[in-house]
Amino acid sequence: MHIVAFVAQKGGSGKSTLASNVAVAGHLAGERVFICDLDPLQLLVKWSKARKAVDVPVEHIPPGKLAPALAALASKGVTLAVIDTPGADPAACEEAIRAADLCVIPARPNTLDIWASEATLAKVRSCGKDYAFLLNQCPPAQQGVRVERGAQALQQLGALLAPLVSTRVDYQDAIRLGLGVGELNPSGVAAREMRRLWASLRGRLEENARSAAPELSLFPYRSFFDQAIKAHDFYASFLNALLPADRGTAERPPPEDAARRR
Ligand SMILES: Nc1ncnc2c1ncn2[C@@H]1O[C@H](COP(=O)(O)OP(=O)(O)OP(=O)(O)O)[C@@H](O)[C@H]1O
Ligand SMILES: [Mg+2]
């Protein structure tokens, strides 16, 4: 059973939206999916009541009960457990991180969200878990050359999941109806984003499972990311890739970008 946790200690970055949509994308791809809702507000439990069908079950898991719940799910043949966590609840966040095979850290493409994700990132790294960022609520228009290039570099390093997820009404409508965007509008752009995201996640989970032989303590992507951080100020590059070129600490645009503007 693969276990994916959506963790970010800043509220509103899209954990619940993405957890429900990834769960549905996995379900549509043939996984036996279960959502563990660690949030005391139980918003995904509400989502599943709106859904009515029990094909993507959701249960609220109280504090301290996640590990036995996951063991029970694995023994019942669940192939994908998706964990949604509350914002600003370090204990629940840590419980999810410790249980997960892969921690997804959603952030909106703004400086405050990315700064806020530092605490989550530190916790994930201290637990020795594999992780990747996921940029959510990006402007739907095509990204600038700089952002595209920064995102591609981070995706190649495994630090950022593909694709960038845009702000789209389908995500909001789907939640209200207890659906995933892949069910609400299967030919829509949001549905395509979620199919691509599921493909990225599945590839990553399968690769981790292959490399998780007992003698290997480092996940391939994590060590890659850690080396990149050591090699140069990678995190600053992450910020710079997302900030407007003429503001704050952003580096100067590459010459070809500057040429395009003229
Ligand atoms: N890609 C998106 N497009 C449009 N709206 C989105 C998208 N992602 C999230 N939202 C909206 O942003 C708001 C916050 O999303 P969500 O509740 O999923 O965040 P969260 O990280 O789970 O928050 P919390 O930490 O409070 O649980 C919601 O209103 C949701 O509908
Ligand atoms: Mg939530």
From TrEMBL:
Pfam families named among the record's database cross-references: CbiA (PF01656)
CDD domains xrefs: ParAB_family (cd02042)
Entries under InterPro entries matching the protein: CobQ/CobB/MinD/ParA_Nub-bd_dom, DNA_Partitioning_ATPase, P-loop_NTPase
Source taxon at top rank: Bacteria
Domain (CobQ/CobB/MinD/ParA nucleotide binding) ranges: 4-146
Identification of the protein by name: Chromosome partitioning protein ParA
